[in-house]
Amino acid sequence: DEDNFVPPVVSASEKVVIRQLLLTSLDDSNGKIRTAIGMAVAAIGQNDWPEDWPELLPFLLKLIGDQSNGNGVRGALRCLALLSDDLDDTCIPKLVPELFPSLYRIISSPHLYENSLRSKALGIVHSCISMLGSMSGVYKRETVNLMTSMLDPLVEQFSIILNSPVLSPNPDDWSMQMEVLKCLLQLIQNFPRLPEAKISAVLGPLWQTFVSSFKVYHLSIIQASENADNVGYDSDGSERSLESFEIQLFELWTTIVGNSMLAKVIAGNIKELAYYTISFQQITEEQVQNWSRDANQYVADEDDVTYSCRVSGSLLLEEIVTAYEDYGIDAILEASQVCFRESRELKQAGSADWWRLHEASLFALGSLSEHLCEAQDSGYNVRDLLEQMVTDIVGTGVHQYPFLHARAFSVVAKFSSLISKGICEQYLCNAAHAIASDVPPPVKVGACRALAELLPESNQSSMPNNIMGILSSLVDLLRQASDETLHLVLETLQSAIKSGGEQSTSIEPVISPIILDVWAQHIADPFISIDAVEVLEAIKNAPGCLEPLVSRILPTIGTILSKSKIQPDGLVAGSLDLLTMILKNAPAAVVKAVFDTCFTSTIQIVLESDDHGEMQNATECLAAFISGGRQELLVWGGEQGSTLKMLLSAASRLLDPELESSVSLFVGSYILQLILHLPSHLSPHIPELIAAIVRRMQTSDIAGLKSSLVVIIARLVHLSAPNVDQFINLLLAIPAQGYGSSLAYIMSEWSQLQGEIQGAYQIKVTTTALALLISTRHPELSRIEVNGHLVKTSAGITTRSKARVTPDNWTKIPLPSKIFALLADTLAEIQEQVGDDADNIDEEVSALTHQLNCKVEWST
């Protein structure tokens, strides 16, 4: 019986034998066996060292020191590497002082140990520094003392290793430098207050590594003129490539710049650092090949934070601006100017790669667009540099330099508020021409980005191509697009439709069928389907397009909803989402047309479906029906009272305490629409509604759902004014499980959730409702006690196990005192607000102050 099998317990004497056999096998000639034995030793050492296995560390140190036993050194280092990764804060302080001298001897003895062993020793040092760093928050003095004792010899060796220039893309030639970079990163991140002078000693050699590695990177990766097929993986599965080495360098420089003490040390070299950073950001030959073959990959790499020198370089430039402010912006602008000038010199010299440096300069500036636009406003002349760089591209071959043209489009879009109107209009014209022409896909990607940003700001009458020409070209692109490019084209279409003005009148029959087809094909992809719905919404809002769009959509959507149980996954929920979009802000005639076709089916979905997405979207759709149809909605249903009965049945299902909370997530907004637009029809059903709300709240585990239902209670308080005391009596008459009445339960929840309620409208409704409640001076309010302050029951950290055993303990205070505290907090927050809305704020303060002045002493 496997379930009841109890493995035999190994005796203490047997453990001794096993441990000894493992140790004596660490120098096996087979590397895989050494690794397996090292893993076993490390696993046992986690439990047995040092108490039950005191000889482990002395044996490993002895094995490391035996230079005649190369396999033994390798096995012991591998074992220590595994062991050091998993040690806790009780073991590290014992291990480091004994281990470090042996590791240092290996690191500092290139004549005795091969580079691979020295790299492994450095890897163990890195693990120890990382662990000491994680302990430094609790054991600051002890860890700093340990680190300081090792710092001088470590920095000396780090400097020696980094002084060796990087001469080859082969990982074996710079593996030790890589480990040093990792160690330095941990040192500076975890011990930022170590003596500045000691850390500074390594910055010169680090710079030499940075500069020498760029020369290799430029030849082997950017230009691919040397064999760079040297991507491998170390024993831990981490990538070993020149690209990963450079990214590690960038991460270290970013950390140094972010360290206030070290930033001062390197301040004089920031311009050179920015220059080399931009140079590293040049498009590589591999990227050229990949992006030329696959436009989707180009869009994905541009939009996502990918693992590359371009992204890491942008993060470093961002840190330079953050750390040095105006001086940093100066340095980056000057470096960009130098790179741009060098690209022009290369172009004049006939270099085929001149465009890479030009593109990198634009890419770097584009990644800092927000900072640079602010800098222009502060007096920096960013505009002239940008305009010179983008106009210099005009006239160059779009087929020969597609990525340069794509970058220019993107940069003009990002800096449209800064670049002159004439250049923006020229690039807008070029973008419209590009999407209609036979140009490389990256150029069309850049053109789409430019159109999406520039069209809303353009002067329609000055556009050489009318909007229909642009839309026609985008529709053609849409038919060819897939995956990532589909998002971009849909986004551009949306912008073009919104910018069309009166020209957009005739777009519906041309574009709607294609967008609906895209929507239907990608209904399972929430990102693309949402993009498609947003394009349809733009068509809906275009002059003269709403009615024909509704006529096109309704027959199909009506059929889908009426036969919802046989539809593919996602289609019903997506159809309801589309329907909600149509209903929002639609005229009454459109709402009635949708009502006649889809209302009953939507109700049936709420009453019968078990799909979370369908239920949530149907709830939002019903809320949109009520918001759009209002009182007329009750007449459209034909038989008197039938529509109201259906609406109340839907509310009852959504408030069913047996339903999962997530299904009812939007019931609050639905009921709020009933209260706002059908108050007189809802009044007779308020007792049953409150009882259902209480039952739903008591079974819900989602704070957002509870908060939305509190807002409903608050609206009912307002609805009952000026007879709020009668509403309190109603709550007293409705029972609540575990409480004396619904009033006691609701107020206990409300007083806890008030601080979690989101949205200006919701906060205003609930806060003023609390003021209305307390202004009644109803005697039952003072008899209710609610949670006050959390009582700390034990010292130390509260673990999960402690929390399970000892639940939160709260003080109890009278409800009026809690309400006054909540109102006072809200009043303080309102008074802190500043801005253009001062008049409204004054009104809110006055209203709340009036309520607070109503017999404050009564709360006691």
UniProtKB/TrEMBL annotation:
One of its GO terms (biological process) is protein import into nucleus. Residues 553-837 form the Importin-7/11-like TPR repeats domain. Residues 270-499 form the Importin-9 central HEAT repeats domain. Keywords: Protein transport, Transport. It holds the Pfam family HEAT_IPO9_c. One of its GO terms (cellular component) is cytosol. Transmembrane segments: none annotated. This is Importin N-terminal domain-containing protein. It comes from Aegilops tauschii subsp. strangulata.
